[in-house]
Amino acid sequence: MVLVGRLIAKFNSYYDKRPLLTTMVTNAILGGIADTSAQLITSYRTRAAMLPTHNRPSLISDGIELGDVNEKPARLSPDLHPASSGPQPFDFERTIRFMSYGFIMTPVQFQWFGLLTRFFPMTATSTTIPVLKRVACDQFIFAPAGLCCFFTFMTVAEGGGKRQVIKKFQDIYIPTLKANWLIWPAVQLLNFRVVPLRFQIPFVSTIGIAWTAYLSISNSAEDEAL
Questions:
Q1: CA neighbor of 45 nearest in space, from 62, 61, 57
Q2: 0.90 exceeded by pTM
Q3: How far is it, in rounded angstroms, from Cα 122 to Cα 130?
Q4: With 60 as the cut, is the pLDDT of residue 101 above it?
Q5: Where exactly are the transmembrane stretches of this chain (predicted)?
Q6: Separation of alpha carbons 221 and 226, rounded Å
Q7: Contact, 176 vs 69, CB < 8 A?
């Protein structure tokens, strides 16, 4: 708790001077943590897949099997590929791509959360309706657009072209958007209701470490299939 308090105090200090830059750096760091977690999970699943069936552990995230939520056939999962010879070495370039995406997207999130706050202000007599409006706008406008940006950015950054972008959208965009709607409405409801504006993006990024790890696994799995 002492460490958390110090981190919050340090964040507040930098935020008061440079709010946008502070949030961008924070988001980039959390994106790096998320992809590192994803690569460790993928390595774990690869080792598990190489074990005899009766010895394989199951990997559950929030009570949902990652493979089930992803709704992709086994051919799209690199860690279950029969030709797999073992876990791949840690991909630092991939982590840098995730950090770059978090850094670049922060100004968009920053403006978006500010707009939601201005368009749907909470008052002493009205809190529930404005919060529900914020969540609805966030999930039905920003979330679909954000996933489009994510998969496009990652594919292009990995050297893919138009064909790869289209293939990725055909295979994993809709399942990922459905998974998003299973998780994020509740998170954003809490975020918009009780978290101060300056902490809303870091809160989303912190809670979203598991979600970003899921996106990383989905993205890398599809890359192996292309």
A1: 57
A2: no
A3: 6
A4: yes
A5: 98-120, 140-157
A6: 9
A7: no
